[in-house]
Write a structure and sequence with these properties.
Elements: E1 11-15, H1 22-33, E2 43-47, H2 50-60, E3 66-69, H3 86-92, E4 96-99, H4 102-107, H5 112-124, E5 128-133, H6 137-141, H7 145-156, E6 169-172, H8 186-204, H9 206-209, E7 213-217, H10 225-229, E8 236-239, H11 246-255
Parallel strand pairs: 1-2, 1-8, 2-3, 3-4, 4-5, 5-6, 6-7, 7-8
Helix pairs in contact: 1-2, 7-8
Bound molecules: 2-phosphoglycolic acid.
């Protein structure tokens, strides 16, 4: 199912996690803004911490760079101390939101059930959701990778109409590769991405599945990005540690440009 790879614009998103003060974030945004002419064939986004999201959005959103929340609540408001709504992200300048990152699943109790509510809430607010999925090392060792990915997709998309699903982005991030320096081989990643696209086809139909961008994440660096992005079902990357320095982020984004 690779015929439509050309229809999917390459996409590279940086996830800053819990890094950068406001001054550092603005400096990065300005430096990236000055490099955008090198990257006009690649869709870009940055997911800053909430405290500097508006500053980053002020600089980058008018230039067409996506700005993403790292999480949000599905409810439209309420007594949920420490949480923000999708509408609050929009109000701060966000264009999208990461949902279901493995750190939120493993360390902060994010459940498939909550994600089933968050995807439609994000879409209703006009945000582009990036649904993060991935297997643990134990699941891979036990041959459970495909079943785990399918279950996460089914749960995440449970309340999303097929017609809306084309605007969703999926990030395949094997948990054992995040922040560990261990990267999936291009063959391992391609196999997982092909499986993800087949599961998406079963859920939302071939045509929509062929339009959904599936990003790889997990220790992507300037030195390994090109071989990963060359795989037919890998449409770009979700970058953690290497997205903290403009030079590395630009190099990785350049590796996603069509050749
Ligand atoms: P990493 O993180 O690139 O630092 O492995 C990726 C992610 O968690 O999105």
């Amino acid at each position: 199912m690779t015929d439509d790879a050309d229809a999917r614009a390459p996409y590279v998103a940086g996830n800053w996690k819990m890094h950068k003060l406001r001054g550092e974030a603005t400096a990065f945004a300005l430096a990236l803004a000055a490099r955008l002419d090198e990257l006009d064939e690649v869709d870009l986004a940055i997911a800053p911490p909430l405290t500097c999201l508006a500053e980053v959005a002020d600089v980058l959103a008018p230039l067409g760079v996506g700005v993403l929340g790292q999480n949000a609540h599905a409810a439209a408001g309420g007594a949920f101390t420490g949480e923000v709504t999708m509408a609050m992200l929009v109000d701060a300048g966000a264009t999208g939101v990461l949902l279901g990152h493995s750190e939120r699943r493993q360390l902060h109790g994010e459940t498939d059930g909550a994600l089933a509510e968050k995807l439609p809430a994000a879409l209703a607010a006009g945000l582009e959701p990036i649904l993060c999925i991935g297997e643990t090392e134990a699941e891979r060792d036990h041959g459970a990778t495909e079943a785990r990915l399918a279950a996460q997709l089914e749960a995440g998309l449970a309340n999303v109409a097929a017609a809306q699903a084309a605007t969703i982005v999926v990030a395949y991030e094997p948990v054992w590769a995040i922040g560990t320096g261990k990267t999936a081989t291009p063959e391992q990643a391609q196999a997982a991405h092909a499986h993800i696209r087949a599961v998406l086809a079963a859920l939302v139909g071939d045509e929509v599945a062929a339009l959904i961008r599936v990003l790889y994440g997990g220790s992507v660096k300037p030195s390994n990005a090109a071989e990963l992005f060359a795989q037919p079902d890998i449409d770009g990357g979700l970058i953690g540690g290497a997205a903290l320095a403009v030079e590395d982020f630009v190099a990785i984004a350049a590796a996603a440009a069509p050749r």
